[in-house]
Amino acid sequence: MSPLTPKAAPALADNVLDLFSLKGKVAVVTGASIGIGLAAATAFAEAGANVALLYARSKHTEKIASDLADRTGVKVKAYQLDGEWLPVINRRIIDTPLLLQVRDYDATRRLVGNVVTEFGRLDIWVANAGIPQDDTILDGNRKHWEDIIAVNYTAVVYQAQIVGNTFKKQGNGSFIITASAAGIANIRPTNQGVYNSSKAAVIALARSLAQELKDFARVNSVSPGYMGDAQGAPESEITNALTRQVLNRTGEYRELAGAYLYLASDASTFCTGTDLIVDGGYHC
Fold first, then answer.
1. Which residues are catalytic, by number?
2. What span, in angstroms and rounded, lies between the C-alpha atoms of 226 and 280?
3. Which of 225, 231, 275, 222 is nearest to 34 (CA)?
């Protein structure tokens, strides 16, 4: 298509509520057993999508999938990635084995193939899995930084290529990346430069992908502020951060559901390359 030839606008439902419907679509959410990922996956199922929950180790994800399917009447299946376990020990992930296979290209390719085989198609992908940082640049652990970059950034690039090619074959799709308000500006007083830069990187990646995939898919990111338990951050740190936040509280994960549903649905067909900030007014 000539770049000077305008594309036709999509045919959209007359009723605005129908624009948010995901009926008949298939969505995958990585890191879907808790927090942001679970909120997004739940919203998609409630909007009518069949959903694949990708998780690392949570023993409860199979039951979450079953309960969500029973409640919404859609197909929900949990997928656990195979791979290497890494014991991560810091204040925010206390001796919790972290599945690093989310950063494995072949494992991701197998997963996408399994989902397409099981569900028949793939319409929405949320690259949500990520790990926080609990050290500083001067005193930190290099291996921990490498893991942050591998999971928070490199894995998203892998997913973008594999899922992007799937969208290209279908002719459509929505790719959503969970970034962070910390990727826009440093959340003082924290010192988590590697995490912050990994999130800034995926915001830039989403904008680049929006251009590259423009003929068949939309790509956007969501930048949440302090949510839920703020990944175990100390109360003093949260209190300090909230002094800059207009709403003066942390967000509930459910308050992110609308952002992800908007970007996944036909309500946002003219939205690509956008970073949707949901931070309670931190960046006002």
1. 180, 195, 199
2. 8
3. 231
DSSP codes of every residue in 205-267:
HHHHHHHHTTTT-EEEEEEE-SBTTGGG--HHHHHHHHTT-TT-SPBPGGGGHHHHHHHHSGG
pLDDT digit string (tens) for 129-152? 998 888 888 988 899 899 999 999
pLDDT digits (tens, 9 = 90+) for 101-114: 567 898 889 989 99
**Rounded (10°) CA dihedral 36, 196, 147, 65:** 0
Band of residue 73 on the pLDDT scale cut at 50, 70, 90: very high
Distance, CA of 243 to CA of 264 (rounded, Å): 32
Query: Given phi > 0 = left and psi -120 to 50 = alpha, else beta, which region is 132?
Result: beta
C-beta of residue 7 within 8 angstroms of C-beta of residue 270: no
Nearest partner of 197 among 221, 220, 179, 219, judged by Cα: 179
Bridge partner residues of 248 (DSSP): none
Find out whether 61 and 30 touch, Cβ atoms under 8 Å: no
| Helices 105-119 & 155-170 angle (0-180, nearest 10) | 30
Give the pLDDT confidence score for residue 87 in this predicted structure: 40
Domain residue limits, the chain: 16-278
pLDDT of 154 above 70: yes
In this structure, CATH architecture of domain 16-278 = 3-Layer(aba) Sandwich (3.40)
pTM of the model: 0.91
